[in-house]
Every structure is written in C-alpha cells, then in structure tokens.
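so the lab meeting is tmrw and i was supposed to have these ready like two days ago... anyway. pasting both below. for each one the top line is the aa sequence and the line under it is the structure tokens. i havent really looked at them closely yet so no promises
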Amino acid sequence: MATDEEFVFDPKIVKNDIESVRKKFEGLMYLDPRCDPAFKALLDSEDSLVNFLNGIMHLEGDDAIQSLTYKIQQEENFRLPEPYSVKFDISAHTKAGKRIDVEMQQVKLKEYISRMMIYNAILLLRSKSDYNKEIGFQNLPDAEKEKYRYKLPEIYSIWIMDHSVDFMGKGIYRDEVALYNKSNIGKDGCLPISSKNKYIVIDLAKFDKKFEELESDEDRWLYILKNAGSSRSSIKFGNPAIEDALRRIECGTASEELLIRQANMTDYINVCRAAVAESYDEGYEKGLEKGLEKVALDMLADNEPIEKIVKYSHLPMEKVLELKEKQAAFSAK
C-alpha cells in the first residue's frame, strides 16, 4: 500500500534492500511512528484508533467513541473546476456520525496552514455528501429536503505536526481551532459560532513530558509518537489497545514491505528536511542582504562617506561601490 508521501517521489530512486534496512533499524525496538508508513501501521486497528481518538479528542463517558469504520490512505477527488485530489492519512467515521481526518506531518511546508484548510474543506464537503446519501436526501419530500439541506455532521481535522506550529503559544502543544466571531474574542464565555467543524492541532516539538509524567491516554499516545522511534526497549502502559499498536511497529516483527517502505520514506524525509533548511537559509540570507542594501542605498542618498556606509551596512566595499554606480546611473536617466 503506497502512502501519501510515496505519491510525490519515486521509491525506485532509493535503493534499500532488506539487509541494509535491517542494519538501519538495528538496536531499535520500534519504527518511528512520526514517519508515514509506521504511523499508519500503528493505528491500523479499530481498537487502537478508537483509543487514540478518544485520547486526542478528550472524549469520555457517553461522549466517547465506541466504534468506527476507517480507511488508511483515503483518496478524495474533486473538480474545482479542474481535477483536484488529496489523500487523507486516516479517515474515520464513528457510529455516532462524526467524520475525522488524522494527518501526521513531518516536514514543515511553507503553506502548511493553507494545506490544513484545504483538507478540512474537502473533508467537510465529503462528509456532507456522505450524510446526504445516508439519509436518502434525494428521495425526501421537498419539505424534508429544506430541513436537511444544510445540516452537517460533526467533523474533526486532527493534525499532528513534528515541527513548530507558528500560531500556537509558547509551551502549548495542543490547541483547538474553530470558527469564532471577532466581536466576542477575548470576552468571558467566548464560544465558537459552530461546533460542527473543529481542528485539533498537536505540536510534537513542544511535547516534552517524561514517561513518569504521563497521566492520560493522550499523553501516552503523544509520548509514543515522539519517542518510540528512538527507544531500544519495550514501552509498557498496561493498555491493550496501545500495546497492540506498538506490536505492529516492532522492528523485529514488522514485514519486509513495511521495513523497506519505512526506510525509503525516512531517507526521503531527511532529503526534504535538508532541502527546506537550505531553502530557508538561502532565503534568509537573501532577505538579509536586501535589507543591508537598503541601508547602504539610503546612506548613499544622504551622501555619507563610503567608509561609513561599509561600517554600518556591513557590506563589502566592492558591493557598496557597485550600488553607488547603479544609483548614479539611475539618477542620470
């Protein structure tokens, strides 16, 4: 089964035979569940996914999920008007009617917030379409159609980020995002204007609880996501759903297919991260240089001495002289 990231690169480019793969994971107890193949294997059972979602969504008692159906790597295709598709990591539908998308994101993309919004929009549209089919909307009398035309099920977009999330405050590793009206923000009792559409965002970079500090199932799952890939011994919580999930990503018993896909994806993610870091550094340097050039140009316009411009702009003498020539040529036009 191909995973989301495997649709954007050619696995044949990465040569990982089973012998070399086993050496890569030698000494490790588990595959890293932050990486796409292991993440999906970890949650690939109803019991484990129910336990995970109840923990992450803070559902207890009568509100807790009892059963669900789910798909790993759920592809959705729409026309906008041109064809457009996304692939949900894990798509779930609870017995109570909740629709849930769970995404694990390792690499920090420049437009990651836009991606979250697009996935959420498609989840909402798909959920509405499925709901209409369930109630037989097309066969309802006209009066009933008006009653259900805009009725939505509850939908949840869960994003687990293995990187800093810019809009979340210092020390906050879990946040909920919903639709609020501006006039009530900051006031006591401020509530979303709708409870039908929620984001739950996890910033794993900020989750730093130690094993002995874990209190809830949410804590335990986040601890596993962040630490299982570097563990050299078994992680035990006495929770059958969690321990069953961990068995599926044990390095010693994982299938050769899963091991190879995990190794390929790990190599790919490392290349992506290096490229993103290089791009960021290059962009930062260009931005910094552009700012320094503005300082130099402003000082040149004020006829400041070249030596002083070099000192305060931190640009080389040659660059300042080049800017002076360009400025003189522009002024002569």
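ok protien two:
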Amino acid sequence: MSKKAKPSPRKKSPDINKVRAEIRQLAQKYDYDEQVLLKFAEFVNGGAFKPVEPSMQELKVAVITAFECSSYQELKQNGIFTLFVQEHKLKMNQKTAWLKAYRKFVGLPENERNAISNTSINGVDVLRNFLPWEVFQLNPKTATSEDIKSAFNQLAKEHHPDHGGHPDVFEKLKSMRDSLLAAY
C-alpha cells in the first residue's frame, strides 16, 4: 500500500509593507540605496512581493473612526466630511473615494508608506501623494520659512534634473515648497 505524499504547507508571502519599512530603516542607518535593498529582497523572495492593500471596508471603518462616528449614516451628517465629498465629487460606493478620504482624514495607508522608487522621497511617492511636511521632514508647528527653504535646498541638490533627478519629482518639490511658503 503506497502512502500519499503530504502536500507541502504553503509558504506565507512576506508583507511588503513590513519589508519596505525595514529596508527604509536599514538604508537610513547604514546609508544604503533603498532600491538596491528592495531588489535584493525580491531576489530572496523569488520575485516581486504581492501588494497588500486595505480593503474598502477597512478604509471606511478607519474614516468613520477618525470622525468619532459609529456608522456611515452618522458620518454623512458631519459637515466637514460632506463638504469634502461634494468638493471632490466623490462616489462613496467606490474604493478610490474611500482611499481619498482615508488619505485626507487618517493618513497614508500602510501600503503607501515607505515607498521605494525613483519618485519617492523620505518614503513618500511624491507623484502619488502631496505631503510636503513629510517629504521635507519638518514639523508644521515649529518649522520656519528658513527651515522650509533649507529642506528644499537639500532635496534639490539630490533631485534636480541636472544632477540625475526625475524632472517631475523636482517640479513637485518646487510646488510643495511654494505651498508651504505661502502660509508664511
């Protein structure tokens, strides 16, 4: 009587969000290139990691919680939320709408943090997310106009097209700088 071979247990794929966070820490600590570390991690993984995105329900619950509401019905009564939905012409039966609300009222979803690409600065893909305080690594409560200019100049040295930087990234940096300076 022959024995049936037991199927090998499925190997759980690593969470790319955790891998990118670890890569970012290593890159900062040892001055490594994040993209090189990611390529190596993908090699060890046997290919690109599967993206881990929040579900529409997770986004919805997080936004409802951020407004300290107990239900979507209660959230729809909130003037700030209603104005945001109307202003952006959002259809709240779509995941993209909840994602936009999440970014505005909760923050970056885990899968968009610690981005690693040639359009990412300090973990933020500047072509996807307009987050100048995070990109410039400044505190909005304590930063001065001089701090903003200094942070921009540091980033401009690295990301200027004349120094091998991506032209669209540099344009976004200028736009971020100008939006922050407009408040002063």
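from a quick look at the 2nd one: The chain has nine helices and two strands. Residues 117-184 form a domain with the Helix Hairpins fold (CATH 1.10.287.110). will dig more after coffe
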